[in-house]
Amino acid sequence: MAQVYDRLMESAPYDHWSEFTQRMVELHHPGVTQVLDLGCGTGEITLKLKDKGYKMTGVDLSEEMLAMAQQKAPVGISWLCQDMTDLKGLRGFDCVISYCDVFNYLTSEEHVQKAFRSAYEALEPSGLFLFDVHSIDHIYNHMYGQTFAEVYDDLSYIWFCDPGEREGQVVHDLTFFLESSVGAYERFDEKHVQQVYPIEKLKQWILQTGFDRVQVYSDFSTEPSEDGDRLFFVCKKES
To answer: Which pLDDT score, from 0 to 100, does residue 208 have?
Structure first.
């Protein structure tokens, strides 16, 4: 997946994520300098925030994704291969972010709560934790039963989205054909499972972790809202 990820995400609104982060920092914790990006993938958001002046650390579980990120920024950003549910040695950050529905890939309540704890422990007092998830309405209305496909000269794919075994679960079945030599294509398949959780349950876990405030926004708006396809949680650690 890492070798085609950036091609598939060419139209992703990375600028919106970086601008949302900067706006939330201005509103809730001015003076942020050290930012930890959990589930950074190939580093697009990490790089954009570095360009805004933040000192960035990117964490991902995929060595292949991190290799792509390292090629883009061999210096100036720390790239670390770690599990976001069990971070090791990461402390002293002013802000922790996790975008592009990374938390939906944590398919058990236990793992979500462990990741919240990891983010909390990585933060300095008064630090911010920002993350986004798919809304329940979004997967029911725009994902279940949908098929997506693209054909390029050197790459094609077909992507099926179907309900999983549990309520609020979506299974992504992807088949890629990638040109390996002139006139020859290599097929590879991927299966990704995502889980959505009710807003109130996420809020409950966040507060139980120790954060003293949580606010929900939607679809990159900087006005609080719990109605949208992509929900953003802005959590403040006690001072």
So the answer is: 98
Structure tokens, 112 = 């979500």
User: To which residue do tokens 């003076």 refer?
Assistant: 31
pTM for this prediction: 0.95
Beta strands in the chain (DSSP E): 34-38, 55-60, 78-81, 93-98, 123-134, 147-151, 155-163, 169-181, 184-195, 213-218, 230-236
* Chosen CATH of 137-195 out of 3.40.1010.10, 3.30.70.940, 3.60.110.10, 2.20.25.110: 2.20.25.110
Sign of CA dihedral 107, 99, 155, 150: positive
CATH fold for the domain made of 2-134+197-236: Rossmann fold (3.40.50)
- Model confidence at 126: pLDDT above 90: yes
